[in-house]
Amino acid sequence: MSDGGVFQFPVGDVICIAIDDGGYDYQPEAFAFGPHEQAFVAATGQRGAENSPIHTPYTCLVVRTPQHLVLIDAGAGWDPGNGKLPARLRAAGIDLAAVDVVILTHGHSDHIGAATGQDGQPTFPNARYVMSTAEWTFWNAEHPDLNHTPREFAGLLTWFAHQKLRPIEPQLDLVDGETEVVPGVTVLPVPGHTPGQLAVLVRSHGEQLLVIADAFTHPLHVPHPEWTANVDLDPAQTVRTRQALLERASSANALVQAFHFPFPGLGRVRRAPEGWTWAPEATHGGPA
Ligand SMILES: [Zn+2]
User: Fold this and answer.
1) Residue 288: inside a domain, yes or no?
2) Cβ 190 vs Cβ 201: under 8 Å
3) CA of 214 to the centre of ligand 1 (A)
4) Is residue 275 part of a domain?
5) How far is the CA of 233 from the centre of ligand 1 (A)?
6) Which domain holds residue 51?
7) Separation of 205 CA from ligand 1 center, angstroms?
8) Distance 273 CA to ligand 1 centre (A)
9) pLDDT at residue 48 above 80?
10) Does residue 286 sit within a domain?
């Protein structure tokens, strides 16, 4: 059921709850930079309207295993238009103090905003915060190399990351490589968009959910994995990571969840004669 920005669905005996944190309007170059921008605009049906903003959701995910309560990404953390995660967790009956693991897939502002509150304290006081060593190191540099990211936006991203990440250091659990963070929940390196981005694999009773974070930021990246954006810090590595994820999701017939796809971001990857297609999943879970 999708109700009040919350959608619950099962993966084996794990209960997953997608939470709509809000969203933001982006320009096309945030999805397909340089030579691919025109093709992207045409494929979205916005031919002739190159500067039309594209509304992009932010979807966080709660994973309730038999023993643990895991949150994947913390949303943008501020109003207006987004930052709805903490209130929607409470409305869904989830005590912020009961979350025992927070996985931050990467350090972009729309994924770490509610890692800490306005008081500068960790929003989830009893959680360990899982991040990759590469990602933590990158964002805690004084001047991370944000490549093609527009200059004023890059400065804001860096400032925000410092504000949000430094206070969680006492609760930090850095990982390297593929790591099971709690039984049935494994993080996987998916570099490219950022140097240390993590995907998350949830496995239970033969079912799989692959949470792909920002390895893909628009459904058109599935048939066009070569379309990278100005915010994909290493475009060539982004394409290699996408190809590997498409192979993995398709061969396992995994349910896939993407942070920026239309809420709740669920679907499956199918092989097509000339590449890959995205098949959105019918949203038929139970009430949250
Ligand atoms: Zn991102």
Assistant:
1) no
2) no
3) 5
4) yes
5) 10
6) 2-280
7) 31
8) 30
9) no
10) no
**Is residue 126 predicted with pLDDT exceeding 70?**
yes
> Cβ contacts of residue 116 below 8 Å, gap of 6+?
77, 122, 123, 163, 164, 167, 168
200: closest CA among 72, 77, 47?
72
Taking a C-beta distance cutoff of 8 angstroms, is the pair 263, 59 a contact? yes
Distance 260 CA to ligand 1 centre (A): 9
How far is it, in rounded angstroms, from Cα 222 to Cα 12? Answer: 26
Say how many residues make up the chain. 288
Query: What is the whole-number distance in angstroms between the Cα of residue 109 and the centre of ligand 1?
Result: 8
Per-residue model confidence (pLDDT) at position 284: 56
Distance 238 CA to ligand 1 centre (A): 12
Question: Model confidence over 179-202: pLDDT tens digits?
Answer: 999 999 999 999 999 999 999 999
**Using alpha carbons only, what angle is made at residue 40 by residues 79 and 234, rounded to the nearest 5 degrees?**
75
Counted domains in the chain? 1
Give the pLDDT confidence score for residue 4 in this predicted structure. Answer: 77
Q: Is 81 within a domain?
A: yes
Q: Are 165 and 115 in contact (CB under 8 A)?
A: yes
- CATH number of the domain that residue 199 is part of: 3.60.15.10
Q: How much distance in Å is there from the Cα of 227 to the middle of ligand 1?
A: 15
